[in-house]
Design brief:
Number of helices: 5
Helix content: 25-40%
Oligomer: single chain
Number of strands: 8
CATH superfamily: Transcriptional regulator MraZ domain
CATH class: Alpha Beta
Structural class: alpha+beta
Strand order of the largest sheet: 1-7-8-4-3-5
């Protein structure tokens, strides 16, 4: 089931984030206790994937599994997997975000949790709110561009 919607949240002094119920409930039947946290510097976001989705995307992304991948694949593998951290939800539905990821992205304590289909994203709330109208205005153009790129009419 895709993650949709958005919710305001706060990262506490111990780097914990309570996963909003609207997102938690989408994982209740599967593996909602374990997430993979991937920093995405271009957007200043943390991407959270459920354990099963991360494994599914990892497997799908391996075109030709090999002990000797080409240099580009090997470099992507080491960068992506070295910055990805597995985090687990506690009894209060919180995850402890890796402090080094928060520091690297300079994420503030006031964040917004966004549904992004196969994942949720954690972004600075103020920045998201300031750019929301502009992003909404670009939605149709982006959908059209991607459809053309993918050969869909």
């Amino acid at each position: 089931m895709p993650f949709t919607g958005q919710a305001n949240a706060t990262i506490d002094a111990q780097s914990r984030l309570a996963i909003p119920a609207k997102f938690r409930n989408r994982t209740a039947d599967s593996d909602g206790n374990s997430w993979y946290c991937v920093p995405w510097p271009k957007t200043g976001a943390l991407r959270l994937y459920t354990e099963s989705m991360y494994e599914q995307l990892f497997t799908a992304g391996r075109r030709n599994p090999s002990l000797t991948p080409d240099e580009d694949q090997a470099e992507l593998d080491v960068i992506l997997h070295s910055v990805t951290e597995q985090v687990n939800m506690d009894a209060n539905n919180r995850i402890r975000l890796p402090a080094w990821q928060l520091e690297t992205l300079k994420l503030p304590t006031d964040v917004i949790v966004l549904g992004a289909g196969d994942r949720i994203e954690i972004r600075p709330r103020e920045q998201w709110e300031a750019s929301f109208s502009e992003r909404l205005d670009k939605m149709a153009a982006l959908a059209s561009m991607l459809a053309k790129r993918d050969g869909v009419s």
